[in-house]
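Contributing: when you submit paired examples, paste them exactly as shown. First protein:
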Amino acid sequence: MSLRGGSARLSEPQDRAAGGEPSAVGGREPVHTPRLRSSPWAVVPVLCLVLVAMTAFGIAFGAVGIDMSTVGDVLWHRMAGGSRHVGGVGDQIVWNLRVPRVLLACVVGAGLALVGTVLQATV
């Protein structure tokens, strides 16, 4: 490398291949392997499944342990009008305390993601 006029310039390799082009490292041609291109949208279904799983775990786990089948029964009864009524303390904890908290967390997370995207796009 030589410094002339304040700019750095790399020196040319001493050995040149035929045609005046610098040869590859070690005299071999570089091997190009094909890359698998995946769409950014391919990960969206996986992230949706992760969101549903984390929502279920957020509803099920807390100071009072409620199993996943009870959570499923409560949500099915309240949202889809299932025939089996769970009732009791578990029903009240899931529907009145944990579901609003988890849904609010999802809305806040989506809002923060949107604001972050807008901020990165404008700055």
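Second protein:
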Amino acid sequence: MIAVTARFQAKRGKEAELEALLRSFVPRTSEEPEVLAYALHTVSGQPRTFFFYERHASQQSFEAHLARPYLQEALARFPELLDAPAVLEIMEILDEKD
């Protein structure tokens, strides 16, 4: 099992458009059986910053998630919406509270 964080910084004036795009991922991703958790957040005091926390059954399921057509279409829009490239971190879960 892996955890993934993804951080997005909207360009000034593009916050609402980026938020709507990122929110549109949640219902679609919720239907993917190997996505165990998927939550969109804002960062306190940073209204242009959005953050996903994700849990996937495996690295392969994460890669399949990224290959979904709706995410590929969104990637093409990121240059117009983001101040900088998205920052992704992939972590192996070593231990957790059940």
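If you have annotations for the second protein, write them as plain sentences, like these:
The chain is about 40% helix and 35% strand.
The longest strand covers residues 46-56.
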